[in-house]
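2.7 Reproducibility. Because tokenized structures are sensitive to small changes in the input, we list the exact sequence used for 6-phosphofructokinase type C, including any N-terminal residues retained from the expression construct. No trimming or masking was applied before prediction.
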Amino acid sequence: MYFSFSLPLSASLCLSLPLSASLCCCCAGMNAAVRAVVRMGIYVGAKVYFVHEGYQGMVDGGDNIEEASWESVSSMLQVGGTVIGSARCKEFRSHEGRRKAAHHLVQRDITNLCVIGGDGSLTGANLFREEWSGLLEELVQQGLIDEEAAQNNSELHIVGMVGSIDNDFCGTDMTIGTDSALHRIIEVVDAIMTTAQSHQRTFVLEVMGRHCGYLALVSALACGADWVLIPEMPPEDGWEEQMCQKLSENRADKKRLNIIIVAEGAIDSHNKPITTDHIKELVVSCLGFDTRVTILGHVQRGGTPSAFDRILASRMGVEAVLALLEASASTPACVVSLCGNQAVRLPLMECVQMTQDVQKAMDEKNFEEAVRLRGSSFNVAVLNVGAPAAGMNAAVRSAVRVGITEGHKMFAVNDGFEGFYKGQVLGLRHMIVVISLWYHCHMINRLFAFLGVMELSAARDKYNEFCVPMVMVPATVSNNIPGSDLSIGADTALNAITDTCDRIKQSASGTKRRVFIIETMGGYCGYLASVGGLAAGADAVYIYEEPFDIRDLQSNVEHLTEKMKTGIQRGLVLRNENSNENFTTDFIYQLYSEEGKGVFDCRKNVLGHMQQGGAPSPFDRNFGTKIAAKAIQWISRKLKESYKEGKVFANTEDTACLLGMRRRAMVFQPVVQLKDETDFVHRIPKEQWWLKLRPLMKILAKYKTSYDVSDSGQLEHDGHGNLTG
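Resulting structure tokens (single pass, no recycling of outputs):
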């Protein structure tokens, strides 16, 4: 279903970034959410207001509540924190303070409130909504508003988005700001690892997470830490000896460094805090290792938002506006969440209650409940096929270690299928891949790896040797594998594109009105160009999947020219490398240069293979680790199922699969069944989920276009009356 909104809303939309008394919610990515709400709100015909300084600004009123314009959210995607400010507000916690806030909203006919914050901020918003009718009655009795104003503003609709680097809010897989915080942590860890390895040192790192160990756990997975301590899973008595023994074994096995990651809220089984200083003293006294402590602190909150956070916040912002459009008096306040790769809407107070239940369970030392609320021997070979994609070493490392843990003998096949053919097979043990996480692998699965699995499974009729379980893990920067929404390496490439676009735009800070034409990789798949364009704030993106002609190009030039006349200083145009054989990057550059004379000048950049290099992003390391572990566990299960009369024999369709992310879940799909979903000529899936983001990108670039809301989130619960996801 498509809506092309043309009629203005009867009421205005208010955007607030409050801070509760217990939670500091400022984090990278919030500006992308602000930008999306403002521009989507203006697109549907609403007046959009900023509330500066959160609930404090709502209580104080005056200039703190300011109407937003399209231009007021320009050039803010790459800025961390929030440009509209955030502040603690004790006054809003009182009834009188909320009455003042209601008065200031009614004065401007604001009846839709979008709140970005944590559980305290969202709880306050819900209480405000529940009291709304009573607050209006009190304002009428005091003579501050008349009956007509109370009638016109009788309903207050609220939608929440969660901004928190701790990822401590139940109901969403990721909160805005978490991925950027992981980037800060991994950048520091990667830097520390080089000095630690040089000097044979042990480093103890403290990361944020007073009540949630997500940052500590995921960063430990991503960097291959030796030990991790989080509040949800206190170590049992005797953990000190176990940790020291582990560190000693690793050092004896020629490992020159040790990394221990500690969440700031880490505790032992007796609720006693575990501090970094205590761990340092323990390591020094028991092992005599040269040990250093690093406390990252507020570094984790700052910096440039990652590509993931920009895209997540943009999607959530648009979804929040759609939720407000569809809200009615009977609709409960909701929070926009991410489940797998899909936006969902969940009852706000159910999410808040579950989040508070986690803390209650931890206070009662019921740590299993807290974690729940948060969620014979064979030989196995691992081989990589295709072009480079950052993050695959994390997958290989995970596959090897999980395979060994499952009792298998693990082998590595050098040089992909060619090495397989030549017999270049090596045995693997745990330590071989431990330091490879932060280098990128040079032999990664691409579409012809998918073809290879199909060919091997098809050859089972002739060769019994191929009658073994086979699983493919998608890994390509192009994200063009059928059967999976996401591929290992694509997030790293998106970050490379986004970072480069940020720098390119910044390079023109001393000039007036400049447009940059940038070519991205991807073959015939426009994922990198489209999603990278959404993250970088592109004005136009040209891809193969969406054919364009000279009239489209001319229209884009004219549209950008008009924007430049309104005060916009930078333009960004992305082109997928194979989008059109005639309209090349040079052609588009020359066209924009000629048609923009007198208004803007142009520069062009071809990003090339820099998109395939660099250290893998935290998302790719984490995704690669989890998907490879799941793949090996599946192989173990299939090996046991197909083991009969002393040998393995697996020749059914469901024993040659691709493991991919489909909407909300990881799914094993027989490669034979994916054949009909594939365009083999252009090496792309016939249907691609991210094409639905294209209208969103155009809306945020001020184009008049329709937006598909058929896949938008709906309010959901699980079978127990609780939220899903």
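The radius of gyration is 27 Å.
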